[in-house]
Amino acid sequence: MGNKKKKSRIDEEHGLMQKIVALCKRRGFIFQSSEIYGGLKSAYDYGPLGVELKRNVMNEWWRSMVHEREDVVGLDASIMMSSEVWKASGHLSGFSDPLVDCKICKARFRADKAPKVEVGTEVTFRQQGKTVKQKAERDYVCPECGSPVLSEERAFNLMFKTSIGPVESDDSVVYLRPETAQAMFVNFLNVQQTYRLRLPFGIAQQGKSFRNEITVEHFIFRSCEFEQMEMEFFCEPDQGEKWLEYWKNERFNWYVELGCKKENLRARPHEPDELAHYAAGCYDIEYQYPWGWDELEGVANRTDYDLAKHQEASGKKLTYFDPLKTNPQTGKQGLHYLPYVIEPAAGATRSVLMFLLDAYDEEPPSESRKEGRVVLRLHPRLAPIKVAVLPLVKKDAGLTEKARQIVKQFWKNSINAFYDEKDAIGRRYARQDEAGTPFCLTVDGQTKEDDTVTIRYRDDMRQERIDVATAVQTVVDKIRE
Ligand code: ATP
Hints:
This protein is α+β, with helices and mostly antiparallel strands. It has helices at about 5-25, 50-65, 85-90, 90-95, 180-185, 190-195, 240-255, 305-315, 350-360, 395-410, 425-435, 445-450, 470-480, and strands at about 30, 45, 70-75, 80, 95-100, 110, 120-125, 130-135, 155, 160-165, 175, 200-210, 225-235, 265-270, 280-290, 290-300, 320-325, 335, 340-345, 360-365, 375, 385-390, 415-420, 440-445, 450-455, 465.
C-alpha cells in the first residue's frame, strides 16, 4: 500500500467520522458504553435521538420484509441457544478470525483485514526511531506500523462463552449468538407447519448478536455487541440462483428508497476464492464509507447446508414435504427434500452509521443566511423526530398553549412530535436541522387570528402557511411520499 493513499484515507476518515462521532455525542444519538468509568471498548449506548433512529431503521426493514409481503413471516428467538446448535452449524470449530501479532509494535490484528503487499517486495517501516527495510514474507503487513515482522497466524473463536446454572461444567456452557440466522434454521419446521407455509417462503428476525471482534473499528461499524436484521428465504434448490438475484436487488433498492445515495452503494459479487465453503453465490452490498468500500449487508445462497447439518446433528428430519412433486425414485406423488436458503443478512447498527454518514451535510453561509448550518438529510421515515412545534415567543401563553395542543394532535396519530420553546427561533431551527427533523411548525401571532401556522422544510428551508386543521395530514402525506 502506498503511503500517500493511506494518509489521504485516514485524513478523510478523521474529517467526516470525527464529525459524526462528535454530532452523535453532542446531540444524544450515540454514547460510548460506561463512559463515566472510562468507557467499555466496542459497546455503545443509543441516546434519545439514536434509539429513535435505530428503531426507525429496524421498523422500516420489518415493514418491507414482513408486513408488506405474503411470503415472509417473523420470529423472535432467544439469544442463548443449546450449544449443540453452534457445534452443528460449524461456529464452534470454524467461526474464527486469523489473529497475528506484530513483533515490532506489538499490535494485534486480523490478518485478513491487514493492508496488502506483494510477497517478496521490500517494505519500509520505522523501528525505534530508525527507518528499516525488510522483505515481506506474507501478502500483508502490520496495519499500525507497516512492518512485515509478524507472529504466526492463530485461529481465534469469536463467540462469547458463559454458563447457565449455579455450577460451571461442560454441560452448562452456552454462547451468546454471533448471528440471528441459526434460530430460523432450527425453527424451520415449527414455523412452516404451524403457519401452513408452502415454498418459497422466508422467516425474518432482528436482534442483538455478539462477536468478540479482535479489531473493533470505525465507531459502531464493527462492535462486539450489535444488531442484525436477517431473513432466511427457503426455496426449491433449482430456484436458488433466481432468488439470490431477486433478493440482492430488493435489498439494494431498500437502501435507495430510504434515501441512501445510489452512487455510494454497490452490489459486489464474491470472487470464487472469497465464497464461504457452503455458499453457491454471494453478493456483498457495499457502501462507500470514508475509509473506502466496505460491507453493509451480505446476500448469500447458503444452499441446504445449514438444514442438512442440523438434521444430521439433531437426528430430526428437517425435510419439507411437497405433495405436488413426484418422487423420481418411486414415481409416487409427494416428495420430501431439503430446501435451499437465500439469506439477506444486514446490520442494523451498521446501517445506522451508514444513514448518518450519507445524510450528513454542511451548508456554508450564504447571502440569505449569515451562519452556515449542519443538516442531517435523513429520509422523513428514518428521522428521529418527525415534526417540531415551536411557539414563536414563549411569553405569550396563548401561543404556547396552542402549540402544545398541536403537538398532542400529532401524538394521537402516532407521530413523534417535539415541543420546543427555548431560545430564539433561528437556534431552534438549527437544532432541528442537526437532529434531522424534516418539518418545523411555527405558531405565531397570525395563528391566533386565522388558525394557520408556518411549516418550514429542513432541506431547502422553504416556508409556507398551512391550516392547523390540515397540519397532521400534511406531515403524514410527506412522510409517506
Ligand atoms: P465483516 O466481513 O464486516 O466482518 P461478516 O461478513 O462477518 O462482516 P455477516 O456474518 O455476514 O458479516 O453478518 C451480516 C451483517 O451483520 C454484516 O453485513 C454487518 O452489517 C453486520 N455485522 C457483522 N458483524 C458486525 C459487527 N461486529 N458490528 C456491527 N455489525 C456487524
